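Below is a filled-in request sheet from our internal design queue. Each sheet records the structural input a requester submitted and the sequence that came back. We keep these sheets so that new team members can see what a complete request looks like end to end.

REQUESTER: design group, bay 2
PRIORITY: normal
MODE: inverse folding
CHAIN LENGTH: 180
BACKBONE (tokenized):
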């Protein structure tokens, strides 16, 4: 008869949502993901950092949408029928804030144990190594595990989150759509 494996002997596992940015597959802890939205209309905000493509109205809340391809030094994410906004929570000034990640497409959820995660490479990725937690082994390939706290912690993104407001006409249009 086999004995149950005690907690210290078990390798901790976590689920990650994977998605593509500029042709590379990234993953973020699923517990940080609030929802996945089909790409819709963004409202551009004058003076916002280049990597902030605009804002969306998410049930009455203003949510900045960051294009991490730009943050990683690549051309902006092309808008296709697969483009999505992954809504995540990130700490800003000690509070949890909601931000959107514009991604080429969402792929899958994967469960990774600590043994499935390799050290972050110092070469060959679009994202700077400080934006990565490591590489998760999924079948015969690797998924780059994104440290969203660092990737979204730039001063420019924090300022964008704090100061972004939707124009009055956008609020009126959203209210009319809800009433109609």
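RETURNED SEQUENCE:
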């Amino acid at each position: 008869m086999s004995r149950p494996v005690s907690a210290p002997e078990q390798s901790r596992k976590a689920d990650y949502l994977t998605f593509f940015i500029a042709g590379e597959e990234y993953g973020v802890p699923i517990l940080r993901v609030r929802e996945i939205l089909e790409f819709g209309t963004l409202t551009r905000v004058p003076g916002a950092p280049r990597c902030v493509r605009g804002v969306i109205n998410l049930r009455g809340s203003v949510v900045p949408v960051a294009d991490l391809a730009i943050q990683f030094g690549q051309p902006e994410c092309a808008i296709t029928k697969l483009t999505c906004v992954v809504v995540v929570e990130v700490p800003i000034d000690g509070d949890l804030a909601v931000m959107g990640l514009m991604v080429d497409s969402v792929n899958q959820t994967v469960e990774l144990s600590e043994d499935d995660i390799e050290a972050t490479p110092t070469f060959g990725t679009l994202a700077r190594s400080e934006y990565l937690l490591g590489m998760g082994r999924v079948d015969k390939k690797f998924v780059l595990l994104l440290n969203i706290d660092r990737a979204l912690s730039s001063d420019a993104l924090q300022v964008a989150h704090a100061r972004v407001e939707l124009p009055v006409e956008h609020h009126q249009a959203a209210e009319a759509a809800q009433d109609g």
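SHEET NOTES:
- The domain at 13-163 is CATH 2.40.50.180 (OB fold (Dihydrolipoamide Acetyltransferase, E2P)).
- The radius of gyration is 18 Å.
FILED BY: M.R.
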